[in-house]
Write a structure and sequence with these properties.
By secondary structure, the chain is mostly helical. The protein has helices at residues 3-18, 21-29, 36-48, 52-65, 70-83, 86-99, 104-116, 120-133, 136-143, 148-152. Helix 5 runs antiparallel to helix 6 (86-99) and helix 7 packs antiparallel against helix 8 (120-133).
Length: 153
């Protein structure tokens, strides 16, 4: 990535932090769209604007073209959860886990989906697997609304 693109990416991040989403999108449109960071920022913008269909299409395309990046799968599932259902999002992450069996954040999200679906034994096991792989998951779990049903069971 060249210096000009790096500066523009910093500007986009600044606009996002300030809540200036239109400005962020305009700046983002002026950057090479083939950069992974542009896809991530665009998914973030779509999420902040509840543009679930656009986020789904982008993240699915990126997951299919770059399946080694787990973030695309997570973003795709996140959008599908809002558009369709937890079960549909779960299927995406089950597929992603085949390629990323040790990716804690995928397993963590599967635990969240199990929790909101009332599958508490499955959620406990998945959360244990995720925290065994990455202790940060334990800190995230404490604050995650999706896991409240698990902790209250």
């Amino acid at each position: 990535m060249d210096e000009q693109a790096a500066r523009k990416i910093l500007a986009v991040q600044g606009y996002i932090e300030l809540g200036l989403l239109v400005d962020a999108r305009e700046e983002l449109d002026s950057i090479d769209q083939n950069l992974d960071v542009v896809g991530m920022l665009r998914c973030d913008l779509f999420s902040r604007q509840s543009m679930w269909q656009e986020m789904r299409e982008l993240a699915e395309r990126l997951a299919r073209s770059s399946p080694t990046d787990p973030q695309w799968w997570i973003s795709w599932a996140y959008a599908v959860r809002r558009l369709e259902s937890v079960d549909a999002a779960r299927e995406i992450l089950v597929e992603a886990r085949k390629s990323h069996p040790k990716q804690a954040i995928i397993i963590y999200n599967l635990a969240c989906y199990a929790s909101v679906s009332g599958k508490f034994d499955e959620a406990r096991e998945l959360l244990k697997q995720a925290t065994d792989l990455d202790a940060v998951c334990k800190e995230m779990a404490i604050k995650d609304d999706d896991l409240k049903p698990l902790f209250q069971s």
